[in-house]
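Worked example (supplementary).
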Amino acid sequence: MLLKKDPASFRDPSGHVYAAAGRIFRTVTEHHREDYEFVRDSGAIEELARKGWLIEATERPSDFPAGIPSAAVYLLEHPRIPFISYPYEWCFGMLRDAALLHLDLQLYLLDHDISLSDAGAYNLQFVGSEPVFIDYLSFRRYRSGELWQGHRQFCEQFLNPLLLDAYLGVAFNSWIRGSLTGITTVAMNRLLPMRRKWSWRVLAHVTLPARLQQGALKDDRLRLLGNRSAEKLPQAGYRGMLTQLRDWIADLRPKATQGSTWGHYQAINTYSETEEATKRRFIRDFVGTTRPQQLLDLGCNTGEYAELALAAGARSVIGYDADPGALAAAYARAKSKQLNFLPLYLDAANPSPDQGWDQSERKGFKARVSADAVLALAFVHHLVIGSNLPLGEVVSWLVGLAPRGVIEFVPKSDPTVQKMLEFREDIFFDYDEAGFVAALEGCARIAERKVITATGRCLFLFERG
Amino acid sequence: MKFRIHSSAGVLAGLLLVAPTSVFAYLDPGAGSMLLQMLIGGIVAGLYTLKLYWQKVRGFLSRLTGGKTSHPTDLERERLNREDAFEPQRRKDSF
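After joint prediction of all chains, the assembly is encoded as:
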């Protein structure tokens, strides 16, 4: 069994995550032994795992596999998360639900005298549409009067990104993709308009910490930090901060979804009822025959076809879209129907890159996907005409994503494409069905072709050679 | 508790007036949050305690009048009730 240390697991000396032959292990070092034993023996974590708030863990007996460092005193095995996603790929509702879970978890654990040493959003993952906490090494024994160590991180990685959208109508994704530590409280304080600053919550979690941060070195107030006896937060104060943030965040809603382009797509699309039925039948047959373990749905919109694919036999669907409104609807669908569908924010023309420490802390999107089928419905024209990407390159990129899939080709005669070309010069000389077919035949076999609309939209089923 | 709330509120008002706006990038980025907690921890604790008492009083009154009893600390139930991404349950007892 070849062990590989997870490149994102290096910050905490309490232990590390390793992957081997598809299994996931976590070490606990001597440094963390006491806290780990206290938390394990409290019984709280089994209860949290049972509720689904926390990923399960099984303690492995002392005969550790070769390659586990000798500093390890315990070895845990976790079930594998089917797909690792990052907060900058989540829509507003997902980040908000992850934040609420984090706070609920902390409140629950405080009852058992356990606190969390940090509050990073990367410590949560989504399994289908459900958030789950994954970092066992964050838990430690609560010491009476201790400060909430993770407060700043919680604000930077959860609260401030959510406020950016809820109060200013700006999606947080690009910002937190650029800054993996989140949005600083000082920046948030500068951005918020004056009228927002009259609330006690904004004062307590944005304005005041920002001012204190800016002024801390200026005078003697910093000495407070060195004086351990001053470092005291009553437990009711700790709980008060957590419940205050919980109440606040539960009420936040994205400001920008109203103006979203595709949120109402299903209501305004250009298909007739019978055309829609033909398209659905084609997808159902394809998925029913291939039964993919992981289906990639590019431009997933509100998740209508992801839901159809899951009903037809797909085990899981990873979808992405660059429209926040469509994603909000897709996430609401996945959540209310408990679908094994993960809708992510991603622009195909600029997907998540390898980044962070040594450019390997957070993996690029491509490295995380192992799809056995792909759907690209009404998608290619957005890349070719919307983003000026060459048709041939788009087609070969698509075929490279999975061994088989369905691609919808939307010709220039279709009203959607006509609208895209309305105010710009048509420089897309090779964009027609013949050009598309030539490109697809250059890298795959066309197993089936079906015209689905009177305007000439076509579905192509491809299989890689 | 009363004294603590008053003294913390005084310090808070004073700090807001004098806190300078220069940025020291090399300062531990958690300093603001730590100072904040030392400063307003007492106020937040006071408010939280009041809130708990208020919920108890409200629960008692609603039992007297035959209304539904609430379990504000039952976070699990509340979380399970948050059904869709757009309409989280609104809790009226936020402060």
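Two points are worth noting when inspecting this output. Chain B touches chain A through 49 residues (CB under 8 Å). Confidence is low (pLDDT under 50) at residues 1-5, 17-26, 69-95 of chain B.
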